Amino acid sequence: MPLSCKYSLPDTAELLQHCRQAGDICRYCWVELLIRSPEYFDQCPCKQDFTPLDWIELLAHHPEWRCYCDCQSFDVHDWWWLLFRQKFFIEHCRCWDDFTPSEWLVLLLVYPFLIDRCRITADFTPQQRQHLLSRRPQLANWF
């Protein structure tokens, strides 16, 4: 779900006009515009002000912009949200050991092939295990 500005501008042309008028004041509008129309990326005056959540939203739609983003500023929860949204970043993540059992549960439901990176399967509650295995029975050998 895109971040939304207080201005609901469903038309891309209207959104572009608003972004140009607002400049760097309305970065949420720019994020929404860039999701819809990546060709305006170079015109965005507020890229340096994007928060990790802004970048996650953008990278979920345009992973090729990774080179413009300082992913080093992402905390473990930012990485979790980015991975949940965009599997392109699986190879770039360096915080596998920092995810909680609840975060791992969601990741494994979405990407069961990540089970070999999960070192905390013993920390899953019985309810988490049961929930995961009811949806991903192929992971039973890991528990």
Explain the overall architecture:
The protein is mostly helical. Helix content is 43%, strand content 0%. It has six helices and no strands. It has helices spanning 12-22, 27-36, 52-61, 76-85, 101-110, 126-135. Helix 2 (27-36) runs parallel beside helix 3 (52-61), helix 3 packs parallel to helix 4 (76-85) and helix 5 runs parallel beside helix 6 (126-135). The two termini are 34 Å apart. Residues 1-6 have low confidence and may be disordered.
Helix content percent band: 40-55%
Rg measurement, Å: 18 Å
Helix count equals 6
Global morphology: elongated
Termini Cα gap: 34 Å
What string gives the helices and strands in order? Answer: HHHHHH
Spans of at least 5 consecutive residues with low confidence: 1-6
Which percent range describes the beta-strand content?
Answer: under 5%
Per DSSP E runs of 2 or more residues, the count of β-strands stands at 0
Structural class: mainly alpha
Let me know the average pLDDT. Answer: 88
Main sheet properties: none
Element layout with pairings:
Layout: H1 12-22, H2 27-36, H3 52-61, H4 76-85, H5 101-110, H6 126-135
Quick gist of this model?
The protein is mainly alpha-helical. It has six helices and no strands.
Keywords:
single chain, 143 residues, mainly alpha, elongated
